[in-house]
Design a protein that fits this description.
The complex is a heterodimer. By secondary structure, chain A is an alpha/beta fold. Chain A is built from ten helices and 14 strands. Chain A folds into two domains: about 220 residues, 3-Layer(aba) Sandwich (Rossmann fold), CATH 3.40.50; about 70 residues, Alpha-Beta Plaits. In chain A, helix 3 packs parallel to helix 5. Chain B is an all-alpha fold. Chain B has ten helices and two strands; from the N terminus they run ααββαααααααα. In chain B, strands 1-2 form a two-stranded antiparallel ribbon. Chain B is globular, with a radius of gyration of 19 Å. The two termini of chain B are about 30 Å apart. The chains are: A alpha/beta, B mainly alpha. The interface between A and B is medium-sized, with 34 and 28 residues. Chain A: Keywords: ATP-binding, Nucleotide-binding, Transport. Chain A: This is ABC transporter ATP-binding protein. Chain A: GO terms for molecular function: ATP binding; ATP hydrolysis activity. Chain A: InterPro entries: AAA+_ATPase (IPR003593), ABC_transporter-like_ATP-bd (IPR003439), ABC_transporter-like_CS (IPR017871), ABC_transporter_ATP-binding (IPR050763), P-loop_NTPase (IPR027417).
Chain lengths: ~300, ~260
């Protein structure tokens, strides 16, 4: 797939000396959903701000849809729609006016049909004549998305799109993002909700302290770094983990009814069959087995902790 | 300039004027009431004791000064507020991420603010006619001077709006600098009426040259030569354009 964003050696150093980005390299393919994960202050918003023209890079280069963001900023910015983290709206404006304004600001001719479609897709059509201050937080977030989509961007940046919205709206937002992808829009989202990335992203990038720690296909990442937990539901409860099971590092749970064994799915020998054989040798009967794949959140936490330890 | 650029300028311009329409009543009534009060106080109370200044009836003499005073205030307020509010509410992100150049941004914001300022100036001019007969010796020069003043002070206001980091800072320059300089700049009197050394000291106030120049377009005479007045206006314009250019080049208080 052709790339739509190319970031090379991107650095950002503030006057205070703080390095928000330390030479980030990243390529985003056209049409993909890319989730950028990272703790607070990792550099996610700084990176998005530079690509969108809100902040200046100290070094490196960025091109969007083949246009350098500095030398050919018009071409680059025309291709971008941005939904920032903060709910920043003109409170006294009507929904339809502010969305039309955004389209005009990006130099696009008036297109009532497109604006109507965007507002309908976001369930804002009935509220089009309402002043923004009359809307709920979730609706305001939708207005910001409508503004970003008003000029038909090829790339949409969503900086914490579901921060502070209720579960139902979050689900709606995920659905909308899925639909947008169907239209060929490339979506880059930053989020604290790992489940959001897990639900939607094609690829995941983890950034911490201004460094991109990894970029990986989500499924491959989960396979590569993911651990599985085998839970052995015992026929009879036990008081303690037998010493003979020490080499597997199993833990006792479920008030003595369950043994949990964490194993690496990519390892040559997972240790599952040997553990089950050992249980048989020890005369420990079991009535059920189940496994659970570790979530993206587990992977993320583990990566950040590894970094901290280093 | 491409059609895309023109559309962006038109959008910002229309948006800013729309904001003005929301407060149309106060935006128009306030200058009318203020002007009327000035006429009651200065034209009626003081004017009855001081019938002529430099051969011009006092009530008519203060009209150019009143218009200038209102236009200085309106221009600075409208332009500074226009760019400060998006900074304050955070909506500036949209402007910064739009494919719009610094020149286009300035044309749109300053154009809209100057339009509002010119509307207010014209209303005061019309209101003054209700109280006194005001001749205009050079109508085209008067219109041109009004436009130059509106644009110059809107540019100044725009700089102020970018510089300000609080509402207090936004108001400190107009209230503590521009307003006193206008009162001391010959809005209500001729500099020639002052005794030395005040007359010489007053000539260090740039507002004197602006009011004098505008007064010349009405009565064909001013405190200083019209050429000097024009030089000052063009000087202010050039300095403001230079400062704004620098602000956008460096991203001063606009971009992190």
């Amino acid at each position: 797939m052709a790339s739509i964003i190319e970031i090379k050696g991107l650095t950002k150093r503030y006057a205070s000396g703080f390095e928000a980005l330390k030479g980030v390299d990243l390529t985003i393919a056209e049409g993909e959903i890319f989730a950028l994960l990272g703790p607070n202050g990792a550099g996610k918003t700084t990176m998005i701000s530079i690509v969108c023209g809100i902040a200046r890079a100290t070094g490196g280069s960025v091109s969007v849809a083949g246009h350098d963001i500095v030398r050919d900023y018009r071409g680059a910015r025309t291709a971008i729609g941005l939904v920032p983290q903060e709910l920043s709206t003109d409170q006294f404006e009507r929904v339809i006016d502010t969305v039309n304004f955004s389209r005009g600001l990006f130099g696009k001719p008036r297109n009532d049909a497109h604006i109507e479609k965007v507002l309908r897709d976001l369930s804002l059509w009935d509220k089009r004549h309402a002043k923004i201050l009359e809307l709920s937080g979730g609706m305001k977030r939708r207005v910001m998305i409508a503004k970003a989509l008003s000029h038909e961007p090829r790339v949409l940046f969503l900086d914490e799109p579901t921060a502070g919205v209720d579960v139902e709206l979050r689900r709606d937002m995920w659905k909308l993002i899925g639909e947008l992808r169907q239209t060929g829009v490339t979506i880059i989202l930053t989020t604290h909700y790992i489940e959001e990335a897990e639900e939607m992203a094609d690829r995941v990038g983890v950034i911490n302290k201004g460094e991109l720690m990894l970029v990986e296909d989500k499924t491959a990442l989960m396979k590569k770094l993911g651990k599985k937990t085998l839970t052995v539901v015992l026929a009879e409860p036990i008081d303690a983990v037998p010493a003979d099971l020490a080499e597997w590092g199993v833990t006792l749970g479920g008030e003595g009814h369950e043994l949990d064994y964490i194993f690496d799915t990519q390892a040559e020998r997972t240790g599952v069959s040997s553990l089950l054989r050992k249980l048989g040798d020890l005369g420990i009967g079991y009535k059920d087995l189940n496994t659970r794949q570790s979530s993206l959140e587990d992977i993320f936490v583990s990566l950040v902790h590894q970094e901290k330890a280093a | 300039m491409s059609l895309q650029n023109l559309r962006a300028i038109a959008s910002i311009y229309a948006f800013e004027l729309h904001r003005f329409r929301r407060t149309l009543l106060t935006g128009l009534l306030v200058p009318v009431i203020t002007t009327s009060l000035y006429f009651v106080v200065f034209g009626g109370a003081i004017g009855s004791r001081m019938t002529e200044v430099d051969g011009i009836p006092y009530a008519a003499f203060i009209v150019p000064g009143l218009i200038m005073m209102a236009m200085f205030t309106e221009s600075i307020f409208n332009a500074s507020f226009g760019i400060y509010m998006p900074k304050f509410t955070g909506t500036i992100y949209e402007l910064l991420s739009a494919p719009v150049s610094a020149t286009e941004t300035i044309i749109a914001y300053v154009g809209a603010a100057a339009t509002k300022s010119l509307i207010v100036g014209s209303i005061i001019f019309l209101t003054a006619h209700l109280f006194v007969d005001v001749p205009v010796a050079h109508p085209f020069a008067m219109a041109g001077f009004m436009i130059l003043i509106a644009v110059s002070f809107c540019l100044f206001g725009f700089i102020l709006g970018i510089w300000a980091q609080s509402f207090e800072q936004l108001q400190v320059i107009p209230l503590l600098l521009i307003m006193p300089m206008t009162f001391l700049g010959g809005a209500f009197y001729s500099v020639k009426m002052l005794a030395e050394p005040w007359q010489t000291i007053t000539l260090f106030n740039p507002i004197v040259y602006l009011i004098s120049g505008f007064r010349w377009t009405f009565f064909g005479k001013g405190d200083v030569a019209i050429g000097l007045s024009l030089l000052f206006v063009m000087g202010i314009l050039a300095v403001c354009i230079g400062v704004i250019g620098w602000m956008f080049r460096t991203g001063y208080r606009l971009k992190k």
